[in-house]
Write a structure and sequence with these properties.
about 750 residues, eleven-stranded mixed beta sheet, seven-stranded mixed beta sheet, about 35% helix
Amino acid sequence: MIEVLNLIIYGRVQGVGFRPSVCRLAQELHLTGSVRNLGNGVEILVRGEAENLQTFVDALEHLERPVFVERIDKLSFDENRIPHDFGNGFHVESSDVKIQGQTLVPADLAICPQCVAELQDIKNYRYHYPYISCANCGPRYSIIRKLPYDRETTTMDEFPMCEHCNGEYEDMSNRRGRAETISCNDCGPRLAGNVRGAKQIFKQDEALQRAKELLQEGKIIMAKAIGGFNLICRADLESGVTRLRQLKHRPTKPFAVMFANVAIAKKYLPLSEKECELLKNQIRPIVLVTKPKDDFGLAKNVAYGTASLGIFLPPFGLYQLLAEYPLVVTSANYSGAPIIFDDGEAEEFYQHNKDIAGFFTYSREILRPVDDSVVQVVAGTTAVLRRTRGYMPEPITVNLTSQEILATGAQMETSFCLTQDNKYYLAQVPAEAAEEWTAKQWTALEQDWENLLNIHPKAVVMDLHPNYDSTNWGKKLAQQRGIPCLTVQHHFAHALSVIAEHHLQNEVLAVTFDGTGLGDDGTIWGGEFLLVQGAKFKRYAHLEAVPFLSDDSSMKQAWKSEICYLYNAGVKPPVDDARAVLIEKLLDEKVNVIPNSSMGRLFDGVACALGLGEENTHQGCCAQRLERAATFALQKGIKPASLHFVHNADGSIWSSKNLWSAILNCDKNNSEQVAALALGFHSAVVEMIVQVSEQARSEKQIEQIVLTGGCFVNKILVGKTVQQLRDREFKVYINNQVPTGDGGLALGQAYYAGLARQEGVW
């Protein structure tokens, strides 16, 4: 019996090797028909014997394809579009340009193993071609002008294919069949190099050789990558890293290191099987891995004072060719500003900074900036810490269908989220919101996403804090468009980001620990235990609110945090300090003072008291050093010091007053004492979380615990808390798909708007 089926496949399947796979499968089963791109998936028209059709449908979910490349959200059958004449064989039809409803824009994908092999094969047609790609890899999101994703709707439209590439493009049995970025040395983007002091522009092989020579000499070069420009130097030469820090105005923030392959990375760092898998997948993220010690073969100033080092593999051909040494690869910008992706701005940056020895670029336009994503393995799962290349603009699917919403995120880790039905599209702009360049890029990117994704927000939701740039941006947009404007408390939004990710129902206890967020009582929160159900929350317990100076410098000056905690505990600083006298006088007179329950500031204060740092020279600096000391204790088998929080009668307020005498008695020059106290502090925080969770179970029958907020980037804190709670049979959830810090806040804000709409709040 002959049957005909029209299959509509919704998911991340367009232009990423799925159509050639479908063609090969159909040919193997002697089916006739066609496949074409839709704006939100792929349509397959297929005819053949009933038994073969069933085999075809069953096989679609199991087609051989690279990890993380395709995702099938839904498979449906439509009998309304069955043509009378299929023609002969199985072929690719032109894309459907009439896109309705949800759109799905494919993310940029790193170079695949097959292309890496061809790149290094001297007999291959694309040997040493820096921009090699196929249907399974290469840029997408960063070069798409509009949907559907076809060559003529990308910035590849400026590069007509040569006869060789066109032949592969039309061959559905070829890995490059319908590969929209297919190109070669004869017809694609070409490498060009400008070496400082040289009078000529170097091309292709000579440019590549010049770049390698400069790196070998320990120089800094600037190169155009997939989503923007990078600064690169050798990671094993301290002098080059020092110059790079000076150039970027980045004194202490760790750099990420690129290795040519996993085998080389393992010579420097112990890697778990899961970390190796993450390094090799086609998102090609930076993976935070634990350092064995500070001196492990790379320059000490790559990432000193931290427990972890970010490492990754080359995301595209040029970097694979350059990776003859471990390399520091960082965004080309000044610290705090967004990555440069415009050719003109990049040229200006290069000319202005004489420490950059060479400038290497290509002519294909980048339409959207994309930094490297950052992930880590914690508590047996992968946690995304920066959701950018390889993820954007992939949606997060939630269990709540809502009107189209724009959420504007927070002040730190700039982001926004757009929603459409049950798809939540999160964007990150790794930069500081207060920077003029950030505001410009942030606004332009949001408008671009609205157009690209065909989303028209019916409401704006933002943080409760009235002075955040993101709040002011949201208010302005809402006023301009005449749409409702909602606010949501910062830590409640953190909690909802986990609830949305994991589709949680029923009441949860959300442990939300971070640096700062405005509470609904007008004080600063950050050490919170919230009971959350639906669009409502209750503050169940929290760290004691300690009087703090309310100026912005308190977030950066750990010494100021220490003095405020000691003042609150009635403990004098161990040495005379004019700064302490001044701070205590202001606290006595209640000048510009605000109560603060922040766990992030407590980490800062403890780190400072242990002699690990007085200033947050980058976000989370002192907390990272405290984690590093605790990691040292674990590595050396040093027992944690006995430290404990105390609480009031009903267990709703927890105080750090009991910690300080032991901490101040520490010999700061004794690394083992410092390590024992650092680990003891982590253990005390975990003990407090467990006790509050047990209390919530006893009083409220709570079984679901959510851990979120910037403090839970800390591997020791997350790992030990999850383990102890699971040992007590709690169900524990953390952020996996979005950052646990403020970079994931917009997801929770958007989810709140949907819940509030459902419950009639607006």
